[in-house]
Amino acid sequence: MSENYVLLKIKRQPDPHRSPYWEEFKIPYKEKMNVISLLMEIQKNPVNARGESTTPVVWECNCLEEVCGACTMVINGIARQACSTLVDQLAQPIVLEPLSKFPVIRDLMVDRTVMFENLKKVKAWIPIDGTHDLGPGPRMAQKVQEECYPISRCMTCGCCMEACPNVNNKSKFMGPAPLAQVKLFNSHPTGAMNQEERLDAIMGVGGITDCGNAQNCVKVCPKQIPLTKTIAQLNRDTTLRGIKRWLGR
After folding, report:
1. pTM of the prediction?
2. What are the alphabetically sorted keywords of the record (predicted)?
């Protein structure tokens, strides 16, 4: 902070087809500011550090309480949520960049479609037969519930994909988040009926064998999901599935 101002350096890009550039801003400091509040100040008064009029910075947000994952961006070199990152805890200048593992739409807003397509690929849902009343759902053991709850907190924010060295433009690796959802839904008594389909999906190209065990994902996950433990368990499950498929030939 310099003279009650927050120094901000933002990597901007007008559209996917134009080159990115850097633009700096000086934002009046207020107590308990988060990164979102800095961007909102620019939106109210889009003037850069040189005093030149510019366009408001584009970013994405929704819940503002670290639940939706929409405001994820790279802040001072680390992928995290802009809503829960406080200015007082950051070194300045604060450097904001879009996630590098996803196509940029504009400025700090990226297209995370690939994550949702991978969730479709692994069938990350519990299928039901029609819309009629199915009666009470199956009971889950308390121990299973406790193991599954942390995985259910995933908000598809993309932090794990940003940190994973195996997620890049030369790899089809789907990343840790969809893999963890396979474990979550296979652990559900109803979801277990389709567990073989999910395991088959992650045994193909871009699946679990592309994980390099860098363990960066578990370090950056804002929800402290035990991703490496979950992937290790899936390694066991896919190995058993592979043996059963081979024996069934």
Report:
1. 0.91
2. 2Fe-2S, 3Fe-4S, 4Fe-4S, Iron, Iron-sulfur, Metal-binding, Oxidoreductase, Tricarboxylic acid cycle
